[in-house]
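Researcher: Sequence of Polysaccharide deacetylase family protein follows. Predict its structure.
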Amino acid sequence: MNLTPVKTPLVIKKLFPNFIWEMPSDTKEIYLTFDDGPTPEITNWTLDVLKLYNAKATFFCIGNNVEKRPDIFQNIINEGHAIGNHTYNHVKGWKTSVEDYLEDIKKAEKFINSKLFRPPYGQITPKQGSSLIDLGYKVVMWNVLSIDWDVFVSRKICLNNVISKATSGSIIVFHDSVKASKNMQYALPKVLEHFSEKGFVFKAIES
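Model: Prediction complete. Tokens:
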């Protein structure tokens, strides 16, 4: 059973007040984000679906994946989406020293020109976070998880996680990964349709 909260608890946000958890807005704006790409099997499909709704998003890319598939990474940029650093090796912050963590991020910088950063698994220590902020990074978290990566979460639950919790200014997490593809390919078009019909626009996060 997955105990990860769909909606980020307020207490967690207060522990890391210098991180970006949402984008407060008086207008109907939603911020879709995609982690772990670029992936040949799913990223280009994601770009095509976003284009149908004139939606912009933010892709937090793994440096190793970008190095392997620079063509797909360039497609993300060409479509006008924002990019962010998701480390080079998808490292777990809680199990990695500050020095090694920053070194992995700097390795990813060679392929990802962005000062937006999202920690893999959401794992980051206060010292890692403050060090990144000192380097000029914006640490972007989220306030709504689709939980698309969990094979025990059904497609409909994945969809409902987003539709029931997202509001104006929400930062929503999907994954353009093979593991998440079944749930994401079902949920994403329906999320775009649902919120578009309600007058929302989908924006990228500015670096």
